[in-house]
Amino acid sequence: MNYVIPPAPQPAVPVAGSGDSFPVRRIYCVGRNYAAHAREMGSDPDREPPFFFCKPADAVVPVAPGVTTDIAYPPQTANYHHEVELVVAIGKGGRDIAAAGANDHVWGYAAGFDMTRRDLQFALRDKGRPWELGKAFDQSAPITPIVPASRCGHPASGRVWLTVNGTLKQEGDLADLIWSVPETIAHLSKYFELCPGDLIFTGTPEGVGPVVRGDLVTGGVAGIGELAIRIA
Description:
mainly beta; 6-stranded mixed β-sheet; 5-stranded mixed β-sheet
């Protein structure tokens, strides 16, 4: 096939302990999946059905272990926020996936940051408009290498944390997810056909807040990985 312009490179995330890469197809994100974070965002944390938003695949920024990666402070915001999350990598697709079998569709796990232009997100939310300007921008999804589930299992508990300049800002546990990973996969697959290459950011614990140019942001998920970025 001849393309009229050169096709964009395939976004991909390295696989931990390997020279292989995981090709990224889509990025789905779960909103307010920890009760305390829902409260700090002004929402009721009751167990309502989860809701989702998306980021473009090329928003991923692979961050190697032990390396601090520069992330540009994005334009058109004065309130740029951090959010640390467990990320699920889908290796087997499907529709209407049952929660009981959802882990069979998981290829692996990573830790990631859902970086957010909070002022734009809130302005759009308050007008009932989509969140893309607040969530789906360049370099908004830094991520660790993906650990295969065959190595790490399917974590249902474990510390999730983030620091800014060495000060702890976010801390939670995967056991506190309102909707577990299998439940999230089951619900999302009612609306989309999940395919190999999809990533799901599963939600962030409380303590989200602003970062500014020069800040060092570190975080991770126990047993999965850690990442460090500097706001450039």
